[in-house]
Amino acid sequence: MPEDDRKDATRDAVGREIEAAVNEQVTGLPPEQAEALRERIRLRVREEIERDLRERTASDRKDAARLSRDARKREKREEEGETFLRFNRNFRFQHMVMFSSVILLIITGMPLKFPNFILSRFVINFWGGIQNSTVVHRVGAGMLIYFMVHHFLYTILTRDGRRDFLLLLPKPGDAKDIVHNIRHFLGKVPDKPRFGRFSYIEKFDYWAVYWGCIIMIGSGLFLWFETDVLRFLPKYALDVAHEMHSDEAMLATLAIIIWHFYNVHFNPDRFPGTLLWWHGRMSEHEMREEHPLELEEIVARRAKESAEVTNR
Known about the structure:
Blueprint: H1 3-26, H2 31-80, E1 83-85, H3 89-113, H4 118-126, H5 130-157, H6 159-168, H7 172-185, H8 200-224, H9 226-232, H10 235-266, H11 276-279, E2 281-283, H12 284-290, H13 292-311
Antiparallel strand pairs: 1-2
Helix pairs in contact: 1-2, 3-4, 3-5, 3-10, 5-6, 5-8, 8-10, 12-13
């Protein structure tokens, strides 16, 4: 039934209910009193019924919207397929410590590099002055040092750490992938390169952080303990450390905002972001798009394990 016809039928039903209620209440009263009471009852009943109809309509709309959302979620789950664990809990913890420390270092360090900016003064005042801001900066530095030590031990002492470190080493195939990807972007080849566990983009991310941490921690320790450093090294060593720390901080900030944030959060395929850093999982659809070679290895390994179990 069309929507307008349904509304008309509902109004007629409401009218009949109102008249029935009115006639029941005014039976036996004088005409004038009956008419006045009839009008009051009619208005009151109409208000009540219309309010009930509005509530029912709103409830129906909410139910329809909820069912539609659930259907879209089911369709998306079916499209995404199985999920695969790419990063274990230890690795995810390291990443959370690292990005928390970097955020603290950026928001407390950049105001020192650009002290005349209004935003810089606001941030420093937010922490309660330059002394407190410096303390927070050193807390962030301590977290970054902890992350580097933890990651170093993780790389040496765990099987997953050693495996990932070897896979993150640059190889000649990465140069071929870069050329292939550029040609794909220019429309020269239809298919983009097929990556394994780590693409050249992820390798760049990793080694940029590795190199940046070494420079930032080394130069930062010089500035943190400048009195002790001056006992053994000339003043220009501190000046060099200061320039290294300042310039590398600027480079790291721009790399994170322009390179990393785009690839992880602002890329149209990922916007408004991914929760991979939290649960460590990727869907089969994402694996097929971004790491097809790794997906093929997983499928082949499962088939081999299944065959071994069957043959026992």
